[in-house]
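Q: What structure does this chain adopt?
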Amino acid sequence: AVVPFAVGAYIAAAYFFTSSTSFANPAVTFARMFSNTFAGIAPAGVCVSTVGRAEGVIRLAEFARRPGFGKLRLAVSVNAPNDAIRWSIMPINRATPMTELMQAMLRWPTDAESPSAAGGGGRRRVFIEYVLIPGVNDALEHADELCAYLKPLRCTVNVIPYNPRRDSPWIAPSEESVSAFVARVHAILRRPTAIKLLHVEK
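A:
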């Protein structure tokens, strides 16, 4: 395979970042990724991460129902508990409000709809990315609102403390505020692996 040979290592997993997941033809994109002449990565090792344009998420969900792609994973950058906050930090929300985004995420297939996915027909978990920004989306009431929003969805919340760069408009959250937010979400959702704390290296 070309890519594993070029880097001198076997690639077992990949995070595929896209601004909209609005693939004109996801079959072409992933056929190359899963081909032995390109990267040779199994669908189970790929997670598509997106800011969440509804039509793109739906298109990808339909693709994930195909035989052989039942273990393809989806991560969506939500980053806010409501439209007002999400509009202020994510311009995509003007095109896809959170209610519309939720309806798209609920189209993510169940195990029963994905012949290659093991399980008893439960909905496959969607990963919710939530960058915690002090003074913007890190209050306990924000955690409560986020949990209410996510209630219909089988998901894992990945809480990512904001990592400021030069001239960043925000500072990093305190460890205390991060811990309090994570604890609040965990206490409300109360699902196995319902929340994870991810740190991005500075």
